[in-house]
Amino acid sequence: MSVDRVLEEARACGIRLWVEGDRLRYQGPKGERTEQVLRQLREVKTDLMARLRDTEAVTVQPVSFGQRALWFEYHRDRCSTAYNYAFSARIRSEVNVEAMRLALQAQVDRHAILRTTYGLEAGEPVQRVHGYQPVAFAAVDAAGESAEDLQQIVRAASLEPFDLENGPVLRVTLYSRGPREHVLLLCAHHIAMDFQSLAVLIEELGPLYAGACGEKQGPLPTVRTQYADFARWQTQMAQG
């Protein structure tokens, strides 16, 4: 079994993996499925540890001019939600919650800006691009809520401030009032997303979710340019 497949199985089981010195460590629920995944891990242990070391790495990149302005606004008022971007949708069908989580994780894996945090290096704001970050996804049982109350809950969740230094910059919540009545909320900070990139996420989510449900899907186009590439180019242009 490939390293990618083993990692996917581990994440699906809720197993957290990390490297400590020359040892592979894990934390996860007890059960037969976990034991099965652990046996698979041992078969690819060397390659898996190399992959984990790569994904745990953090790459420091310059911020774009727009991100610099948003970083300043963030420090001026950390509780401000003026730059929250939110999208909510009603889903009137059954939802495979685990498949939804896997689809969203695939998006975080595809787009580095969704696993980026922000800090200071030598007094200057920088992007800290993480090799891997788990998606901030929550499934909430809202069976006891009226439609009006749920609308208020979703609105309040969309107005929660972000922690740009520690992340995440994207939060997704699935509220379920019944087996075929759900509301999906995607909320991101503007430092990582605008309406155009939000539209890309929504467009990608359908085929990724279908694929996670086991339906045959064609591969999505490879992401060849990340936002950090644009920010680096912009910085070089300004200095030239």
Describe this structure in words.
The chain is an alpha+beta fold. Helix content is 42%, strand content 25%. Helix 1 runs antiparallel to helix 2 and helix 5 packs across helix 7. It starts with a helix and ends with a helix.
List keywords for this structure.
240 residues; alpha+beta; four-stranded mixed β-sheet; three-stranded antiparallel β-sheet; globular
Q: Strand fraction band?
A: 25-35%
**SS summary, helix count:** 8
Helix content: 40-55%
Mean pLDDT score:
90
Shape: globular
Give the spatial strand order of the biggest sheet. Answer: 4-9-8-7
Short characterization:
With 240 residues, the chain is an alpha+beta fold. 42% of the residues lie in helices and 25% in strands.
What topology emerges from the helices and strands here?
Layout: H1 3-12, E1 16-20, E2 23-27, H2 32-43, H3 45-55, E3 58-62, H4 65-76, E4 84-91, H5 97-110, E5 116-121, E6 124-130, E7 136-141, H6 147-158, E8 170-178, E9 181-189, H7 195-212, H8 227-239
